[in-house]
Every structure is written in C-alpha cells, then in structure tokens.
Amino acid sequence: MTSPSPLQVLMARRMLATCNPRQIREDADLTQAEMAVLVGVSASAMSRLEAGNRKPWSKTAVRWAGILAQLQAQGAIYDRAIAA
C-alpha cells in the first residue's frame, strides 16, 4: 500500500474517533485477534488501539477505518434483508 493522502488519514482518524470500533467488531462476530490480522497489526496492538491507549499510524488508521466501514455496510445490508 502506498502512503495514504493527508485527506484519507484525516477521514480515517475522524471515523475512528466518532464510531465505536469495538462494537462494530463485536457486531461482526470478530475477535480482536481476527481484527488484528485484517488490519495488519499484532493482537496486543489491536487491544491497545481499540482501548484508545494508542493512536494508530497513518496507514493503520486508513486500513482499520476501511475495514470498519465495510463491516458497517455489510451489517446494514444484512439488517435491511432481515427487515424485508
């Protein structure tokens, strides 16, 4: 992955600050270890990131926010299908 643009980093960090990453992960039935693999960090780093004890590097923030956005979208599609 090439370096993300400043705008991508800003948008990713804004999303991470305004959403609940843990809730999104749990709603998708993923463990912290599974999320860590998707994001490309260690399980202990994922734990610290999710707890807010560490700010993600730019590339990590963009990857993590992208994964969370996909999980949210999939959840919304599933919810609409169930409601129909």
From TrEMBL:
It comes from the Bacteria. One of its GO terms (molecular function) is DNA binding. Residues 22-56 form the HTH cro/C1-type domain. SUPFAM superfamilies: lambda repressor-like DNA-binding domains. Pfam families: HTH_31. InterPro entries: Cro/C1-type_HTH, Lambda_DNA-bd_dom_sf. PROSITE patterns: HTH_CROC1. This is Transcriptional regulator with XRE-family HTH domain. It comes from Actinoplanes campanulatus.
